[in-house]
Amino acid sequence: GQNIDQPTEMTATEGAIVQINCTYQTSGFNGLFWYQQHAGEAPTFLSYNVLDGLEEKGRFSSFLSRSKGYSYLLLKELQMKDSASYLCAVRPSSNTGKLIFGQGTTLQVKP
Amino acid sequence: DTGVSQDPRHKITKRGQNVTFRCDPISEHNRLYWYRQTLGQGPEFLTYFQNEAQLEKSRLLSDRFSAERPKGSFSTLEIQRTEQGDSAMYLCASSSTSAVPGLALVNEQFFGPGTRLTVL
Predict the structure, then answer these.
(1) Buried (b) or exposed (e) across B26-50, using 16+ Cβ within 10 A?
(2) Could A97 and B104 be called an inter-chain contact, meaning their C-beta atoms sit closer than 8 Å?
(3) DSSP states of B43-59 as a string?
């Protein structure tokens, strides 16, 4: 089966750092994506990992360990606008391109 | 091209009626996906096309659902005999399959704003 787990909710303070974890068990693996989704809006692409290690993009970094079936998204210097749902998604195959999503982590940033 | 567009943005219908949604992908993208999302959940894959060919359909998808992409550009998703359990946000996404030499094939999916369906 396909299973992707992430915490349902997290709260953090403006200016702080937060780490959102994601564990996955899928029939195949061809990359892990993180998307951001503000309430009532479409998901927007944040990051992609296919090899083990850390990918950094400005205030956002994403880490992957394929042997552990584990990823995290790290958000630094949190801003109020970072309050959103963060979706972890696995692409199980290069042939299909479809994504299998976790339930999403709702992050609330407080002043 | 400003991105993926979907029409309508909202649809309210009575149980038993048929509904059809349209998605216009980013013009140079050859892959098009349909997902369904309910409150508090991540998007759930429904089906996808490469050009005009429907290459995969979720086993969870009832035969009341059908999708087409007749000319390899826009796509339609039809739900027949709607049920209250069909109420959800229907998201369309598109991606390319082109490879950039020396770079990993990211081919991220770009999502449209969605069509929110309410079945009364």
Answers:
(1) beebbbbbbbbbeeebbbbbbbbbb
(2) no
(3) -EEEEEEETTEEEEE-T
In single-letter form, the type of residue at position A99 comes to L
Q: Does B25 touch chain A if contact means CB atoms closer than 8 Å?
A: no
**Cβ-contact B92, B55 below 8 angstroms:** no
Q: State whether B43 and A101 contact (CB < 8 Å).
A: yes
Query: Is there a contact between A96 and B33 if contact means CB atoms under 8 Å apart?
Result: no
Q: Does B107 reach chain A within 8 Å, measured CB to CB?
A: yes
* Half-sphere exposure in the Cβ direction for B114 (13 Å, CA): 21
A33: left (phi over 0), alpha (psi -120 to 50) or beta: beta
Give the integer Cα–Cα distance in Å for A102 and A99.
10
Q: Which amino acid is at B104?
A: A
Q: What is the pLDDT of residues B40-90, one digit of tens each?
A: 999 999 999 999 999 999 987 889 999 999 988 999 999 999 999 999 999
Kindly state whether A92 is in contact with chain B, defined as any CB-CB distance less than 8 angstroms. Answer: no
